[in-house]
Design goal:
Strand order of the largest sheet: 1-2
Shape: globular
Mean pLDDT: 79
Strand content: under 5%
Number of domains: 1
Structural class: mainly alpha
Radius of gyration: 18 Å
Number of strands: 2
Amino acid sequence: YPWRHTPETQLRDFNLTEIEAMLGSYTKVLFVRDPFQRLISTFMQEMGSSSSFSSFVQDVLDSRHHNASVAWKPLVSLCQPCLVQYDYVVMFGFLSQELGHLLRRAGLPVDSLLTEFTDTQVRWTYSWLSEQMFSELSLQQKQQLSHFYRWDLAAFPFSSSFRSD
């Protein structure tokens, strides 16, 4: 459907028959990251707009889905994994293993395209940051965040989440 494709075109702009035909002709890859890591990353990038992580989280909770930024909006609402049958789900923290497999399956040369990923070390850093930053939050804020991201937490096996509190 190239005649209808522009950079602004979204899947919802097509009818069901067109959507099924397009999705059936593509290899669909979904990259996922723990929602709490995404939240911390967004806070770190926008530190000037909030005085503390706790106030930033409160702003996120107050905005909910209405004016939610793609940076912290639940993945399930962005990617529709219950409706779109993805061929691959690549989780942050396992990029080097999963991307190598994905490139081989696509018939692409792994060595020339796959750079060295250090996401395992980044995952450790986020684990430490999570402990520090989430200790600022009240129990009510933690519960509200868990509720806000409940479908992401149910859909994907995130192990580093603070839910164990």
